[in-house]
Amino acid sequence: LDVLDDDLLVVVAEQQAVRSVPDLLAFSAGCRRLEAACRRIGVLRVRHQSELSVALLRRFTNIRSLEVDGCQARWIPRLAATLAMVPGLTSLSLHPPRDGGGGGDISSGGLLTDSAVAALAGALHARACPSLLQLQLDERLSEDRCRDLAEPLAPSAGLLLCVAHAAS
To answer: In sequence order, what are the beta bridge partners of 166?
Structure first.
């Protein structure tokens, strides 16, 4: 790693970030140069609710794309509260658990329940992510929920959200 220039070091750090946040944190602990490279990453994949923290996201303010894997409805308020830490975010992807268990299953109203939509829409109305261009969800939304989420987005992002996720 010592022979890599700074830009290539950022690429290596992004690969660690895609694998897991704990791997990224371990990588960044190596030295100041690695920590600086980790601060410049543009993609972060979160897999646990505990990784949605202000302290963690404050370290990675250059994130352009945030993926939340295994996301459950009960995670959304915490996610909404931390979105202000990533003002340059252009893409947010929420993926519910693959096994259908937890707070994101169909029996509990899906990933984006009314309270989850309210929390996420509130953060977007508060301009937590003013550059957000894509909100990717792995479920269909009612027209009302889609409208609530699309309203605070830029017109093109809101239209994309409604076309991709509104239930017919």
So the answer is: 141
- Stated pTM of the model: 0.81
Q: Is residue 16 within a helix (H) or strand (E), and if so which, with residue range?
A: helix 6-19
Q: What is the pLDDT of residues 23-45, one digit of tens each?
A: 788 878 878 888 888 888 888 99
Question: How far, in Å, CA of 89 to CA of 94, rounded?
Answer: 14
Helix (H, G, I), strand (E, B) or coil at 166: strand
State whether the Cα torsion 44-48-49-55 is positive or negative: negative
Q: Residue 33: what residue type?
A: R
Relative to beta strand 43-46, strand 91-95 is unpaired
Which letter, b or e, does each residue of 116-132 get, where b requires 16 or more Cβ atoms within 10 Å of its Cβ?
Answer: bbbbbbebbeeebbeeb
Report the alpha-carbon distance of residue 84 to residue 54 in Å, rounded: 9
